Amino acid sequence: MNYGFGQALLDSVVGILVVFFALVLLMCIIKIMTAIGDSRAKKNAPAAAPAKAAEPAPVQAPPKKLAPGTAGEVKLYDTDPRTAAMLMAIVADELKTPINELRFISIREIKEEA
Amino acid sequence: MQHILETLGRLGSTSGFTTMTWQQLVMIIIACVLLYLGLVKKFEPLLLVGIAFGALLTNLPGSNMYHPEMWDAYIAGTMGVGQIIHEGGLLDILYIGVKSGLYPSLIFMGVGAMTDFGPLIANPKSLLLGAAAQFGIFAAFLMAFGVFGFEPNVAASIGIIGGADGPTAIWLTSKLAPNYLAPIAIAAYSYMALIPLIQPPVMRLLTTKEEREIKMEQLRPVSKTQKVLFPIIVTIFVCLLLPSVAPLLGCLMLGNLFKECGLTDRLSDTAQNALMNIVTIFLSTSVGATAVAERFLAPRTLFIIVLGLIAFEFATVGGLLLGKLMCKLSGGKINPLIGSAGVSAVPMAARVSQLEGARANPSNFLLMHAMGPNVAGVIGSAVAAGFLLAVFGG
Fold first, then answer.
1. Does some domain include residue B291?
2. Smallest CA–CA separation between A45 and chain B, in Å?
3. Which among B154, B204, B248, B356 has most CB atoms closer than 10 A?
4. Which residues on chain A are in Cβ contact (under 8 Å) with B387?
5. Does the residue B60 lie in any domain?
6. Is the per-residue pLDDT at B140 higher than 50?
């Protein structure tokens, strides 16, 4: 096999281009996949909202109390502070993360419809 | 008394102590040094210990565990696998898994089952960094061929050390240059273990302190559907583009699908634990067995060790330079240090990026950002190996 340096150089250039081509192709596919996923999520979001609106809107309880030890950030809906504290402790334990490194926005009790 | 002396004489004449050559003694010392590096210095112990012990076994005179001449005959087409199983030693039989590409592919299945491609899916630009870091493979290939005078197929196998991916290096070398399997595998795994020493000087040389201090935005969340679709899509597109890479990449993605689909937890667990451990034992000892004295102790082994280091350095440079370019183009939103993680070596290279970033700015957390290029490097090095096999494997 008469294989010279010029040919090796050419093969190297083609090789790195093939690697780039394959990975750029994957990048494009991931971007398309993400865009499709995002658009589906957006479509589902407004579709879900009117469906809810059609039902008799449940009266949302105003935020009443703040859970202890949260620097006044977490809002509680239909949840007592004791349950909220317990839930936050469980989440922190499951995530193996100190509770002061977690940020809870709100806690709401989900009531199943009869 | 006469009988006892005769028996002892016979034992003495067949003993390894009297039949040992100086080359075998040197190899036993080298094997012990590698054992020291694996056991005491903790250089990739899971693989290096097996490789070193395989090298030790194969160089014990009279052990008859591995016969390189049989494998030469196999390559020449004068001996079949059946005859090797019948006449060969234990390590010959184990080596069939290397020769057929079985072990590296199964290891890749375990790697896939342990890998989270989430950071890569969250930031697809990471793939570019994974591609740029493969520059080391082709730079080392050119140097091995043009400067050191290696044959093209051997030069390609040496170049793949720059992929910093042990199974890929073994897979390609067993097909292109099986006689060089031991030095290439040892170089690949040794340098992977030395990444925390090899990469930081280059990283500091090629980046400014301001660049190293850049904090990157939090990655977006990735849905389960995306994680499940990813291995399927990658397999279809990459294996259609480069069919020669299908055994490696296919197994990598199958392992990942086991992990992500959520329905095959038992299979995922087996792939990443039991199967991976069994195959690691077989792979490492049989690769080590190829370090036969008369083949390993040659100037070319030293050249391979030097070229392996060059490959790693160029791979780091490739990733960093593209990282710097992306940093400029993004207006300083990308920390170029994550580029060096594109050399594969999961997760060591990503950890090095994290450590260097944190050294410049203690509140900098680059690990998840570096995992993207890191796992992209695994795909990139597999693609590069597939390309080299397609070019030089014919």
1. no
2. 16
3. B248
4. 14-15, 18-19
5. no
6. yes
Contacts with A, B 193-252, CB within 8 Å: 223, 225-226, 229-230, 233-234, 237-238, 241-242
Contact between B81 and B208 (Cβ < 8 Å)? no
A61/B contact by beta carbon, under 8 A: no
* Cβ <8 Å between A25 and B379: no
Q: Strand, helix or coil at A112?
A: coil
Per-residue exposure over B285-312, b if at least 16 CB sit within 10 Å of its own CB, e if not = bbbbbbbbbebbbeebbebbbbbbbbbb
Q: Is residue B25 part of a domain?
A: no
Touching check for A2 and chain B: CB below 8 Å?
no
Tell me which residue range forms the domain holding B240.
Answer: 101-283+299-392
Residue B286: name the closest of B107, B120, B110, B114 by CA: B107
**Nearest residue of chain B to residue A26 (CA atoms):** B234
Domain boundaries, chain A: 1-56, 58-114
Which residue's structure tokens are 């970033």?
Answer: B357
- Token code pair at residue B362: 């203690």
Total domains present in chain B: 1
Q: What is the pLDDT of residues B144-203, one digit of tens each?
A: 999 999 999 999 999 999 999 999 999 999 999 999 998 999 899 889 888 999 999 999
Give A76's strand partners: A107
Give me B109's structure tokens: 């299945």
Query: Per the omega criterion (within 30 degrees of 0), is the bond before B178 cis?
Result: no
Nearest to B356 by CA among B386, B389, B316, B318: B316
3-class secondary structure per residue, B200-258: HHHHHHHCCHHHHCCCCCCCCCCCHHHHHHHHHHHHHHHHHHCHHHHHHHHHHHHHHHH
**Residue B155 domain-assigned?**
yes
pLDDT tens, chain A, 114 aa long: 679 999 999 999 999 999 999 999 999 999 998 898 888 888 877 665 555 555 555 555 555 555 444 445 677 877 887 788 888 888 888 787 777 677 788 888 776 554
Q: What's at B177, amino acid-wise? A: A
d(CA B183, CA B188): 8
Q: Could you tell me which residues come within 8 angstroms of residue B134 by beta carbon, excluding any fewer than 6 positions away? A: A16, A19, B162, B163, B315, B318, B342, B377, B380, B381, B383, B384
Helix (H, G, I), strand (E, B) or coil at B318: helix
